[in-house]
Design a protein that fits this description.
Shape: globular
Order of helices and strands: HHHHHHHEHHHHHHHHHEH
Number of strands: 2
Distance between the termini: 64 Å
Helix content: over 70%
Radius of gyration: 22 Å
Largest sheet: 2 strands, parallel
Structural class: mainly alpha
Number of helices: 17
Strand content: under 5%
C-alpha cells in the first residue's frame, strides 16, 4: 500500500514539475514575443523610412563613407571594437558566450545607417543578432539558469526573424537548426514556436508587411522537370559556395591590408560608390527585395551578371565593417541567378528564381528544413516536391561552406570517412 502511494506521489511530483516548466516556457515565450515583436516592428519601420529617403534623395549615397565612419565611431563609443555579428549569437547558444546588451542598440542603429547610406546588406541576419541579444538579456534579467538562457536566446532569434520577414514557422525552426547542423535543439521547440508566432502577430498589428510572392510556371512533377531542377540546384550550390568564399575573402583581405577600422570602412564605402557610378545602376544597394519581387512575381530576368554584382557589393559592404545581414543578399543572389539560368534549362523565370532563392539560402546556411518551410510560407505548396528535391541537392553539394564561421556541422554530408578526411585536409577557415 505504501509503495503504491509512493508511486502515485512520484507521478504527481513529475506532473507538477512538467507543468511548472511548461508554464515557465509559456511565460518566457510571451515576454520574448511581445518585446522582440515591438522592437522588430520599430526596426522594420526605421529601415523602411531610411530606404525610402535614400531612394528619394539619390545624393545620400555619396555620403556612404561618412556613414561608415559613424558606424565605427559608435562601436568605439560603446567599446565594441570587434563586432562578431551573428557568430557571437551562435557561440552564445553553444558555448555560453556572453552577449552584452549593448549589442542590440548598436545593431539597430548601425544597420539602419548602412541601409540609409546605401550599403548592400540584409535585415533578417541583423534581426537574428538583435533578437538573440535581447533574449539573452531577458534571460539574465530573469536570473535564468544556463539552459533557459540558451532557450531565451533562441526565442529572441526566432521572434525577430518572424517579425521582420513574416515567416513564423520557418523562423522558429531556423533558430533551432542553424547553430549545430545535424542536431536540432528540440528542447526549445515549444517556446521558439510560441515566441515566433506572438512576435509575428505583434508585428502584423503594427503594420509590418510580410513578404509574399506569387510563383508562376511551376512544371508538373516528372523525370524531365526533376532533372532540370537538379541541374539548377547543383549550379546554385556552386554559387552559394562562391558567395561564402567571397564574404570570407573580402573580410580577411580588407582587415589585413587596411588594419585601421576607420580607414577600412571609409575605403569600402568609397568603393561601393565608385562601382555604383561605373555600372550606372543602384539595384545592388540595400537589401534588394524589389529585384527579388521582379524576378519571382514579375517573371523578369535580370542582366546575367546581376548575382555576381550583388556578391561583390555585399562582400565589400560587410567586409569593410558595415552592419547588416547576409540572408536577403543570398535571396537576391539566388533569385537573380535562377532567373537567368532557368530559361536556359527550359524552366519558367518565376519558378527558376524561386528555386534559386531557396537553394542559395540553403547552401549558405546549411538549414534544409527551415529552407523548405520558408518556401511553403513565401511561395505556397505548389511545386513542393520540386522545392524539396532542389533544397536537398543544394544542401548536399554546398559541403562545409557557411556564412557563419562558428556554425558546426555535426552530421556528415557525405559519410563519416569522407568527412573525416575532408576535415583533416581542408579545415574550414576561421574568421
Amino acid at each position: 500500500m505504501n509503495k503504491t502511494k509512493e508511486k502515485v506521489m512520484n507521478h504527481f511530483k513529475k506532473l507538477f514539475f512538467v507543468t511548472i516548466h511548461f508554464l515557465r516556457y509559456i511565460l518566457y515565450s510571451i515576454i520574448i514575443g511581445v518585446v522582440v515583436g515591438l522592437v522588430g516592428a520599430a526596426f522594420y519601420h526605421c529601415m523602411h523610412f531610411a530606404t525610402g529617403l535614400r531612394d528619394t534623395y539619390s545624393w545620400i549615397l555619396y555620403f556612404l563613407p561618412i556613414g561608415g565612419l559613424l558606424i565605427v565611431g559608435d562601436n568605439y563609443l560603446f567599446k565594441d571594437r570587434a563586432p562578431q555579428g551573428t557568430n557571437l549569437i551562435l557561440k552564445s547558444v553553444r558555448d555560453e558566450e556572453h552577449i552584452p546588451i549593448k549589442v542590440a542598440p548598436l545593431i539597430f542603429i548601425d544597420t539602419v545607417l548602412t541601409h540609409f547610406f546605401g550599403g548592400s546588406a540584409g535585415r533578417e541576419g541583423a534581426a537574428l543578432q538583435l533578437g538573440g541579444s535581447i533574449g539573452s538579456f531577458i534571460g539574465k534579467t530573469l536570473k535564468s539558469n544556463r539552459v533557459n538562457r540558451k532557450i531565451l536566446t533562441l526565442c529572441g532569434m526566432s521572434a525577430a526573424f518572424s517579425a521582420l520577414f513574416g515567416t513564423p514557422l520557418a523562423a522558429a525552426i531556423f533558430a533551432l537548426e542553424v547553430v549545430n547542423v545535424g542536431a536540432v535543439y528540440y528542447t526549445a521547440l515549444v517556446p521558439c514556436c510560441l515566441s515566433s508566432i506572438i512576435a509575428y502577430l505583434v508585428a502584423q498589428a503594427l503594420n509590418v508587411a510580410p513578404e509574399l510572392f506569387t510563383v508562376t510556371g511551376i512544371p508538373e512533377l516528372g523525370a524531365l522537370s526533376i532533372g532540370k531542377v537538379i541541374v539548377l540546384a547543383l549550379l546554385c550550390a556552386v554559387v552559394s559556395i562562391l558567395f561564402c568564399k567571397m564574404l570570407h575573402f573580402a573580410k580577411h583581405a580588407l582587415t589585413k591590408y587596411l588594419k585601421n577600422p576607420f580607414l577600412r570602412i571609409f575605403v569600402g564605402g568609397a568603393l561601393i560608390v565608385l562601382i555604383t557610378l561605373i555600372i550606372g545602376s543602384r539595384d545592388y544597394l540595400g537589401a534588394g527585395m524589389n529585384i527579388i519581387e521582379h524576378c519571382i512575381t514579375g517573371g523578369e530576368a535580370p542582366i546575367a551578371p546581376a548575382f555576381l554584382l550583388k556578391i561583390v557589393f555585399t562582400a565589400i559592404t560587410l567586409g569593410a565593417g558595415f552592419c547588416g545581414g547576409e540572408i536577403v543578399p543570398s535571396f537576391f543572389i539566388g533569385a537573380t541567378f535562377g532567373a537567368v539560368m532557368g530559361p536556359l534549362l527550359g524552366l519558367d523565370v518565376s519558378f527558376a528564381a524561386a528555386i534559386g532563392m531557396l537553394c542559395v539560402f540553403c547552401g549558405v546556411t546549411n538549414c534544409p528544413i527551415s529552407t523548405l518551410i520558408i518556401g511553403f510560407e513565401l511561395f505556397g505548396f505548389g511545386g513542393a516536391a520540386l522545392f524539396f528535391i532542389a533544397i536537398s541537392v543544394s544542401y548536399l553539394i554546398s559541403g562545409r561552406e557557411s556564412l557563419y564561421s562558428t556554425q558546426t556541422i555535426i552530421d556528415p554530408k557525405f559519410g563519416i570517412e569522407f568527412e573525416k578526411k575532408e576535415i583533416q585536409e581542408l579545415p574550414r577557415e576561421k574568421e
